Amino acid sequence: MYDWAEPGPPAPALQEKPHFGHAALFFLVALPLLAAGQYLSLVIAHALPVYRHKSYSHLVHVMASDARLGIPAQALAYLLVGLVTVLLFRLLWREPFSIGIHWNGQQAQRRFLSLVVIGLLVGFGNTIIGNYLPMPKDPPILMDMMKSPGGAWLMLVFGITAAPLLEELAFRGFLLPGFVNTFRWLMHKDDISRSTLNWVGIPVSILLTSLPFAMLHAGQVSGAWGPLLLIGGVSVVLCVVRLLTDSLAASAVVHAAYNFTLFAGILIQTDGFRHLGKLKG
């Protein structure tokens, strides 16, 4: 017979992955790795014959202003973060990284066309809404594209591959589940109800994920609130896709399709980036 004088069962451990501790660890590891990747890119660039006699300060300026050097440097940094993250959390979780991070590629495969359509609709919808919001005339990301066809193509390829992969890993792979699983833990402890989780916890988690996601892109749009609002809306869609499908791969597909719409109009307008001068008109 149960003895009511005995203490109750211990509160459930925070076992769902990734929890907020995992998210914090990811960002603590990723930020210095991004800096290390940029530094490694500087060293590699300085060893190239064309830059061998240039100063490091000059190379820093070139990386910041020329996508032909800046994008490969950013890609190397992203690759470094991705490799270390997979190895670290595979050891920590003692299971394949794809399982712990809820990659769930089969979901993305089954719904691939639908996910692409969602991304395209969000992108074209934002283009229409943007006509009614204050938008910067010459945002830095557009100015970067105008400098060379090669740089523009690198930005396009990076924007639909490495960029959505790492951004989804950071924000929908770690940060969003970190918040949501914290609220789920509170529910398992009976501190909050399931309805509170659904109507408060999940919306708050999406908001807390979308704010830093939007601010990450502030430099690309001169900090203008119009495009930042639209980017925040994109993040909400990506969060909903990630939660409904339980698939990080699914949100990555939507993200890549959305990013493609950012380049599609320019690609057509400039005849495949061959006549970038048309953007000045």
TrEMBL record:
Residue ranges of domain CAAX prenyl protease 2/Lysostaphin resistance protein A-like in the record: 151-260
GO BP terms, alphabetized: CAAX-box protein maturation
Name of protein: CAAX prenyl protease 2/Lysostaphin resistance protein A-like domain-containing protein
Annotated keywords: Membrane, Transmembrane, Transmembrane helix
Tree of life domain: Bacteria
Gene Ontology molecular functions: endopeptidase activity
Lineage: Bacteria, Pseudomonadati, Acidobacteriota, Terriglobia, Terriglobales
A Pfam family this chain is assigned to: Rce1-like
InterPro entries: Rce1/LyrA-like_dom
Membrane spanning stretches: 24-51, 71-92, 112-133, 153-175, 196-218, 224-241, 248-268
